[in-house]
Amino acid sequence: MNRRKLLGSVTAGAGASLLPGNATAAGNATAVGSATAAEGELAARVRRYLDRALAAGSPSVVCGVIRGGHGYAAGAAQDGPAPGGRTVFQLGSIGKTLTTTALARAVCSGTARLDAPLVLPPAFRIPRKGPRPITLVDLATHTSGLPSLPPNLLAEADPYDPYAHYTLDDLAVGLAETTLSAEPGSTYEYSNLGSGLLGQSLAFDDVPAMLERDVTRPLRLPDTTTTLRPDMASRKAVGHLDGDPVPDWHDHVLTAAGTSIYSTADDMLRYLGAQLRPERSPLRDAIELTQRPHFTVDENLRLGLGWHLSALSDGRTMTWHNGGTGGFSTCAAFSRQSMTAVVMMVNTASEESDTEPRPVDALTFALLEEL
Questions:
Q1: Run of H or E including 90
Q2: 3-state secondary structure of 13
Q3: Which residues, including other chains, have CB under 8 Å from residue 363's CB and lie 6 or more apart?
Q4: Is 245 exposed, middle or buried (0-12, 13-18, 19+ CB in 10 A)?
Q5: Cβ neighbours of 122 (radius 10 Å)
Q6: SS in 3 state form for 17-81?
Q7: Measured CA distances, 343 to 46, 85, 141, 200 (Å)
Q8: Cβ(303)–Cβ(3) under 8 Å?
Q9: Could you read off the pLDDT of 152-211 as tens digits, one per residue?
Q10: Looking at residue 353, what is its pLDDT?
């Protein structure tokens, strides 16, 4: 996805104690949350955005909001029961921020350095361009010069599950065929390959266990996982592409890029609550490090570790990441200045055009702007 293009179109206390609502909704294009009278205005505002997501073609949508230290989630659907805070979606590239949080934990504990070179087992040749090697901060800020995907990934891929066939042996071959487009540390170029390699550098062939141990378990995100447990399967939305149901994505190699991670609006509200109030989180120092700017693209975009940073029209900093798989689109954004956050998840794939962002991104940013 073209993050710079998307950012150009953006104009226009929560924490560990946050208890996100488990709102559910039923019926055609309905949205019923657990709002009290004091929350009625917020519920009505969220409802308008749910309706706009449905009008843009989403079969169903769930939206979570943090404002004033409280979480609220509600859903809507074109037909049948609507999703709620515990409905499972594929998360997509928002999962990259989990990987960079694991990196930040390692840095804060002294077991890794941001300026350390990328190191993998000898079979994996790391491409070079210019005088210095790719570093971990290059991978975390998409400035490694690596392409979006390994050159040999798509040749044998199932278009409905493009990462499933790819093995570590394939990755070794692919890296040997990879050429950097720019010297590391010089240019922003969004890369799933780079994020996947960051995960492998931190926990070779054991990325899911690392993410659970270092990030999702400490932050109490039980449904943010690459493993679809039976209880999660019964709560999972069906992904869609062009109106047709499609299978989930699976990935065993570049998992750290978010390609096969599941989550819920409730989990994302807890995660965003920790971003708003790191001091109430067991990962305080790591979260602060991920949100600190580490690379400046232009006046519209700076990069934290994984997170993108841009300015809303009133001057507030919006910290955000979006995501997508073959059947799902997601976006999460927050502003620490106003202590507000929004996450939106839809069960349809979409891409921004040359002139317009994806509906889920535009709606998430617009709602955060209102809040």
A1: strand 88-90
A2: coil
A3: 49, 52, 53, 56, 331, 344
A4: exposed
A5: 7
A6: CCCCCCCCECCCCCCCCCCCHHHHHHHHHHHHHHHHHHHCCCCEEEEEEEECCEEEEEEEECCCC
A7: 11, 11, 22, 28
A8: no
A9: 999 989 999 999 999 999 999 999 999 999 999 999 999 999 999 999 999 999 999 999
A10: 73
Eight-state DSSP code of residue 113: -
Inform me whether the pLDDT recorded for 28 exceeds 50: no
| Helices and strands (DSSP H and E) totals, the chain | 11, 12
DSSP-derived 3-state class of residue 118: coil
3-state SS, one letter per residue, for 211-280: HHHHHHCCCCCCCCECCCCHHHHCCECCCEECCEECCCCCCCCCHHHCCCCEEEHHHHHHHHHHHHCHHH
Write out the H or E segment, with its range, that includes residue 285. Answer: helix 284-291
pLDDT in tens, 254-293: 999 999 999 999 999 999 999 999 999 999 999 999 999 9
In the chain, % of residues over pLDDT 90: 86
Rounded distance between C-alpha atoms, residue 270 and residue 285, angstroms: 17
Q: How far apart are the first and last CA of the chain?
A: 26
Separation between Cα atoms, residue 54 and residue 50, nearest integer Å: 6
For the stretch 70-117, pLDDT in tens is 999 999 999 999 999 999 999 999 999 999 999 999 999 999 999 999
Q: Do the beta carbons of residue 145 and residue 129 sit within 8 Å?
A: yes
pLDDT of residue 40: 85
